[in-house]
From TrEMBL:
Residues 74-145 form the Enterochelin esterase N-terminal domain. The keyword Cytoplasm applies. One of its GO terms (biological process) is iron ion transport. Residues 1-20 form the signal peptide. One of its GO terms (molecular function) is iron ion binding. It holds the Pfam family Enterochelin_N. It comes from the Bacteria. GO terms for cellular component: cytoplasm. The keyword Transport does not apply. This is DUF3327 domain-containing protein. SUPFAM superfamilies: alpha/beta-Hydrolases, E set domains. Keywords: Cytoplasm, Hydrolase, Signal.
């Protein structure tokens, strides 16, 4: 994508995309596979060759009209061989194959082999705003499956990062991600080591190209909890470059740091102290960062989204905006009985002067030994309801996607515009 060309989608339109579809999706019969099955009966094995020629021409997965407005049938296909015993679609989209929730997610997504062919397939009916990553687990003659990308799909997410590398299914109505077309950041990163007694805290600071160390006006701040997820998985640098260049947010300073596991035992108070009393003062002293809490956004995904809320609730005089993506609001301290500890405390605390942007995915319905039945989208709805009942300034969205940086980057961008954009402050 040429860097001078950009797509601007108004914030209201992004929210509409995230709330318009009445259903998440469902397992479906694939028109393409049904047609192939009929052709095999009439024409014999030559029909399979023509099918794979079609897949080669059209690409995969196969996307076909579902016969309902805004809906499509998406068929994932894998070409096996004589050694192939089983194939599993590795993607959180498999949540569509259950009615409600599941504790055995690894059993989902098993693809069906069509007759005696090399065609392995699984199909879902989905809304046309879907975007999810996926790969295939191929079980052959060996004891362990091989994870491979879709050889018929040219869309690959983060091909240079092995931990994130995946094929992408991205339908026409998915929110645009124009920053993904950029090949490099325009500004500079600094790696800073801040003394915290027993060990140093690493903070990565991004200065956009428009950053001026002599600026008379202090800069807004994005504090990101999760250096890999936000910095690498979402490429916040390229996203921020795009948002600044297109006038959607002002020049700001981005600072990324990580949680420490020991902080959980103390209800994340060490994280609160580190962010507010160590990181923010350093940014003010060295990067012209603002002291206005209304211009400071703390952001995180999953557990880090929930901790972002804790930091702002504990220290609203320093941080006035929380951007939580699929926050783990089911969490409780080990010595507490009830789960969803943060929403329960918010209900009891005096209201703080803090604004919220919460996003969660329709497909986040997975029960794990950790969340004990309090799955993501449900607990985010509970947090939403508590915040609304207490009168907080809140924007809440649900998106047609999964627990992944590929989806979260939409809402990191939208949340930054919501808090810092020229039309919202």
């Amino acid at each position: 994508m040429c860097l001078s060309v950009f797509v601007r989608l108004p914030l209201a339109a992004l929210v509409l995309l995230a709330t318009a579809s009445p259903t998440r999706g469902q397992v479906a019969s694939s028109p393409s596979i049904e047609e192939l099955a009929a052709d095999l009966e009439r024409q014999g094995p030559t029909a399979e060759g023509r099918f794979w020629d079609l897949v080669e021409e059209r690409g995969a997965p196969l996307v076909e009209d579902a016969g309902a407005p805004g809906r499509s049938v998406v068929t994932f296909v894998y070409r096996g061989d004589a050694e192939t015993r089983r194939v599993r679609l590795e993607s959180n989209i498999n949540a569509l194959s259950i009615d409600g929730i599941t504790t055995d997610f690894e059993s989902l997504g098993m693809m069906e082999r069509l007759a005696d062919t090399d065609v392995w397939h699984i199909a879902y009916e989905v809304g046309n705003d879907l975007r999810v990553p996926y790969s295939f687990e191929v079980f052959g003659s060996g004891s362990e499956p091989e994870t491979v990308l879709d050889s018929h799909n040219e869309k690959v997410w983060e091909p240079e990062v092995d931990a994130l590398r995946a094929s992408i299914v991205e339908l026409a109505g998915a929110p645009p991600q124009p920053w993904r077309g950029r090949t490099a950041e325009a500004g500079d990163w600094d790696q800073v080591e801040l003394d915290e007694g027993d060990e140093a805290r690493t903070v990565w600071v991004y200065k956009p190209a428009s950053f001026d160390p002599e600026s008379e006006r202090p800069y807004p701040v994005l504090l990101g909890l999760g250096a890999f997820g936000i910095g690498v998985g979402m490429r916040v640098d390229r996203m921020v470059d795009h948002l600044i260049e297109t006038g959607r947010i002002p020049t700001l300073v981005v600072a990324l740091t990580d949680l420490r596991s020991a902080s959980e035992v103390e209800r994340y108070r060490p994280t609160v102290h580190a962010v507010v009393d160590t990181v923010l003062p350093y940014l003010r002293a060295h990067y012209r960062a603002t002291s206005d809490p209304g211009a400071v956004v703390i952001a995180g995904t999953s557990r880090r989204g929930m901790v972002s809320a804790i930091v702002a609730f504990e220290r609203p005089e320093a941080i006035g905006n929380v951007l939580s993506m699929s926050g783990s609001f089911y969490w409780k301290p080990a010595d507490e009985v009830e789960y969803e500890w943060v929403p329960t405390r918010v209900a009891a605390w005096p209201a703080r002067d803090v604004r919220f942007y919460l996003a969660a995915g329709w497909l986040e319905t997975v029960v794990t030994p950790t969340n004990r039945g309090h799955y993501m989208v449900s607990t985010n709805r509970h947090m939403r309801d508590v915040l609304r009942a207490r009168g907080y300034d809140l924007r809440y969205v649900e998106f047609n996607g999964v627990h992944s940086e590929l989806n979260w980057q939409d809402w990191l961008a939208a949340g930054l515009e919501h808090f810092l954009g020229p039309d919202t402050r």
